[in-house]
Amino acid sequence: MKPNIGITLGDCNGIGPEIILKALSGIDCTQSTPIIIGSKSVLEYYKSELSIDLPLYSVSNSKTDTNLDSGFGVYEVVDSASITPTPGDQSPESGLLAMKAIEKAIELCVSEDIHAMVTAPISKEAVNLAGYQIPGHTEFLAEQTKAESVLMILVNNSLRVALVTGHIPILKVAQSITEEVILERLSVLDRSLKEDFLIEKPSIAVLGLNPHAGDGGVIGTEEIEIISPAIKQAQKEGIKATGPFPADGFFGQKLHLKYDAILAMYHDQGLAPFKLLSFGSGVNFTAGLPIIRTSPDHGTAFNIAGKGIADPSSFIEAYNLAVKLAKKKFS
Fold first, then answer.
1. Which residues have CB under 8 Å from 61's CB, separation 6+?
2. What is the CA angle 37-43-48, rounded to 5?
3. Disulfide check for 127: which of 56, 66, 132, 285 has CB 3.0–4.6 Å away?
4. Considering the domain 1-147+289-331, what is its CATH architecture?
5. What angle do CA 312, 97, 292 make, to 5 degrees?
6. Alpha-carbon distances of 131 from 87, 97, 215, rounded to whole Å
7. What is the pLDDT of residues 156-173, one digit of tens each?
8. Alpha helices (H) along the chain
């Protein structure tokens, strides 16, 4: 089975269009059919600016119009002929184009016109300027697909890091962490490790919230009152979870090598060490959705947009993971 993989444009003023164009040159198209969802004129702009020679053509039906002999198909989502990218800027126009691409990709995934979606980075500020009040990709995907429980998992080879809380202010992290939420995240993570990553009996390390995992309650009681009870309940339900571990020394002591996945309590606690260890080739996978979605583990990088120096490595990894998961799901 050769899956159709939808690629959303991302913010047209960020590095999304550049890494997409670069990645397409390195994708094995004998294994999948990539379909870009967004704007052909925007991509033509970056082709010209960055001297990238890659044939593109417009498509209106991802099942019948794609023909790799003619180049790469671009599914138009808005009347974008008048859109001129301004690399490094954030604008309502770029936010709207980015969100329309995501909405179309979700629609095509649900109808199975495409079998997975790979999302280039968006700017939360730009999409909010366009009228979308959303904290991020993951939350929007969950809402649009009516997924009851989703989980962000960062993937790189054998390293997998998931989050209890995602795109929320640090001020709200502690109050958002409950025994029920942790148990739910562990359940989704355990199921994804088994079903998506084919790990028969996955082991999961759970990090603490406070410095030194609370130091026996001296620095905080969440580990004693919330996290440990959640782990014990998960164990009763057959989930091989262990912890809570002090987060500061966990990765430095290379304890992550002993587990199939790590569940961190909040965004930067998990993503900072992950990005350091993945050397720019990590992938964001959203578990718990009825559709397959992956993305690179970096943002829009407005500071280098349009300069031709963006690294497509993480995007290529995200694409390849989407192909792998799609083949498994639709075989």
1. 113
2. 170
3. 132
4. 3-Layer(aba) Sandwich (3.40)
5. 55
6. 21, 12, 45
7. 988 999 999 988 899 999
8. 16-24, 40-50, 92-110, 124-129, 137-145, 173-176, 179-195, 222, 228-236, 247-250, 267-278, 313-330
